[in-house]
């Protein structure tokens, strides 16, 4: 049975991801060489990290690599933060797991759900399902992915460039308890050589920019380069602003500061037009043009 590349570890930044890739390239960490079977999928849990090679022209002769990653779970749309993609496990999947758990992680969720339900007391006619929803939010898995083009010294003479992917799993409730690669000797304390790994999203971002042509890209656009690693914003037109209740990000922040939530969409045109309206208090203080004396006399007679 294939073991994960790493267990009980969180990937905080692209630097962490590159350290893991380097550990795989130097054979300190295992590379996933085939799709996970049913038993291996059942063993997916928070803290598992998998590095796998995408099947391409360079991998056909050896038979290694995969066309895509499959874990048997359903995920929502991707959310982009810097070079990472994040996917939240769908509600239907977590609910199904509670009723019919198929993995140890789902079994633990089911047991905790049953224990809390037996010990719960109805207050103010509020059903326990409200608390159960909060529990599932904290326990729900989040999948984190990162991709690079790999140019190993032994491959360069043959013109071979590989594509590797990192797939990591965590949940909000387990994140603080996961270890970091800084504590893994031979992986987190090794300098990654220049030129071995290049983000697979760099070329894609350039193509997206060219596709927009002369259209300007706003700072909130998902195609513009990120400014920091403090948040994981949603895709498309949604953007989450940092919460004012949180302190400023440290010099080397991780990608886990907040769970991304979309803000209500607003039309930039309507916002621009509203900003040009004259304040109401000015309109009240300003008197209109004087009426013709004949009209004034007629109005006085009409009101008397």
Features:
DNA binding, 304 residues, elongated, single chain, 6-stranded antiparallel β-sheet, 10 helices, Gti1/Pac2, cAMP-independent regulatory protein pac2, alpha+beta
Overall description:
It is built from ten helices and six strands, in the order ααβββαααβαββαααα. The termini are far apart. With 304 residues, it is of the alpha+beta class. Strands 1, 2, 3, 4, 5 and 6 form a six-stranded antiparallel beta sheet that branches. Among the domains are: 14-89 and 141-211, no CATH class; 268-303, no CATH class. α3 (91-99) crosses α4 (104-119) and α4 runs antiparallel to α5. It is elongated and about 100 Å long. Helices cover 31% and strands 11% of the residues. It has helices at residues 14-25, 38-42, 91-99, 104-119, 129-139, 153-156, 201-211, 268-275, 280-285, 293-303; strands at residues 49-53, 79-81, 84-88, 142-150, 162-170, 197-199.
Proportion of residues in extended strands: 5-15%
The description of the largest β-sheet is: 6 strands, antiparallel
Helix content: 25-40%
Envelope shape: elongated
Beta strand count: 6
- From the N-terminal CA to the C-terminal CA, the straight-line distance is 100 Å
**Ranges with pLDDT <50 over ≥5 residues?**
116-135, 212-252, 261-273
pLDDT averaged over residues: 72
Radius of gyration: 28 Å
**Pattern of helices and strands:** HHEEEHHHEHEEHHHH
Please give the count of helices: 10
Derived structural class: alpha+beta
Organism: Gymnopilus dilepis
Protein name: cAMP-independent regulatory protein pac2
InterPro entries: Gti1/Pac2
GO molecular function: DNA binding
